[in-house]
Amino acid sequence: MKKGVKKKHHYRDHPIFRIPRTFGQKAADFIAKWAGSWTFIILFFVFLGIWMATNGYFVLKYLRGGLSDPYPFILLNLALSCLAAIQAPVILMSQNRAAQRDRAKAEFDYRINRKAEKEIREIKNLLLTRRRHRK
Question: Which of 10, 60, 61, 123 could form a disulfide with 66 if both were Cys (CB 3.0 to 4.6 A apart)?
Fold first, then answer.
């Protein structure tokens, strides 16, 4: 690094961004990213459509006397409930981590801005001093 040249500050210099993430934090971030994507939504609708079509076929077989399960959509309801019960807290954990990173970044930006303000004030005072000495 050249003498007199200051290192450019980056929000990733903040200690919170240098702390290694745990397996749970990485998993929560991945699940939140995946579950919030259009790919997941489209694939989930395709899965639900296939499930309903398959169970609709079995309902028709039941009505004709071929099957003995009168409630084929109960398992679908259970699967969706379990998905929601697991997915919601994981997404909340990821959002809490994002909020923590945002707070740290805002604090870092505030410190940098205060430092820049101080340096600008010093430059202004230096210029005013030089102006007075010229007169």
Answer: 61
Please state, in angstroms and rounded to a whole number, the distance separating the CA atoms of residues 29 and 90.
8
CB crowding 91-128: b at 16 or more within 10 Å, else e: bebbeebeeeeeeeeeebeeeeeeeeeeeeeeeeeeee
Q: Name residue, tokens 């007075």.
A: 132
Query: Are 58 and 72 spatial neighbours (Cβ–Cβ below 8 Å)?
Result: yes
Longest dimension (CA), the chain: 107
Pairwise CA distance, residues 103 & 105, whole Å: 5
Q: Are 39 and 126 in contact (CB under 8 A)?
A: no
